[in-house]
Amino acid sequence: MILREVHKAEKFDGYSVIFTTAGLAKEQIVKIYFDKDLVEKAFQSLKGVTKLRPVRHWLYNRVIAHVFICYLSYLLLTLMRIKLEGMDITAPHALKELGTMYRVHMRGHAQGFQDNQSCHTNEETGEDIEGDRP
Fold this sequence. Notes:
The protein is of the alpha+beta class. It is built from four helices and three strands; from the N terminus they run ααααβββ.
């Protein structure tokens, strides 16, 4: 009996129904639905890459500030994806690599020297790796 019901329902596999009471054209309804999916994927990216989490703010200015930070984060991620197109690195991987780097700038006025040094932390050993001097 159950197997018969499963086979009967299989003829609808792969189909979706979008229902609305709004008086919109079919094309508009489908576009709005898929635009929503785009926004959901954007927030999914933010949660994964930048580790932004939902924050429970109630004051208007704090809500606006939180949304602005989310917007800027997604903008940065999108711009990185565009700039890294064709390279052998993804935006999330680039952000991870940048998180292990730092720059040291030393200046000794009395001794008359100036030095710039870029460093990279090896994730496995935690040791600093000296980089090129610009």
